């Protein structure tokens, strides 16, 4: 069976695909954070993964709101604060203060050309929890809209199928959230 390259690309950049990418990056950061205790100066993979997860969550919402994939690449790029502002302008619920603080914390390191190292004292371990909380909050907030977008653009819109998909996404996300340290 041959696939049209345009169809493959539209599915790869669909809101649901971006939601899943986000969740996978956040799960990877969370899993590594549980098993690897490495000073921030020696490896910042965890923070890069979390930042990428936040980026994909914001872009998922924007795609569900009709922003073309080309605009996400050319206009937003990897700019987390610009993506957040665009999402808020397009109707994203106002995030809790700690979500905004986490995004502002990591945004300067997450750039178009590279991930910049977090400034830290040798041996310091900046907490990963707030970044994971920010990403999972975003995913939880946008899940219903992402599923609706999928069925409008790609699926046979049935309430049962839509509800089943939303239930599965929320269950997967809840498993991830259950492993994220609670913010104090």
Provide structural commentary.
This protein is an all-alpha fold and 184 residues long. It has one domain (11-179). 67% of the residues lie in helices and 0% in strands. The chain has helices at residues 5-12, 15-35, 45-64, 69-76, 80-89, 97-106, 129-153, 159-179. The longest helix is centred in the C-terminal third of the chain and has 25 residues, at 129-153. The protein is globular and about 55 Å long. The mean pLDDT is 86.
Map the helices and strands.
Layout: H1 5-12, H2 15-35, H3 45-64, H4 69-76, H5 80-89, H6 97-106, H7 129-153, H8 159-179
List the secondary-structure elements in sequence, H or E: HHHHHHHH
Oligomeric state of the chains present here = single chain
Largest sheet: none
Shape: globular
Which structural category do the helix and sheet elements fall into?
mainly alpha
Number of DSSP-assigned strands: 0
Termini, distance in Å?
Answer: 52 Å
Gyration radius, to the nearest Å? 17 Å
Number of helices: 8
- The figure for the number of domains is 1
Could you estimate the helical fraction of the residues in percent?
55-70%
- Beta-strand content bin: under 5%
**Average residue-wise pLDDT:** 86
Enumerate the spans where pLDDT stays under 50 for 5 or more consecutive residues. Answer: none
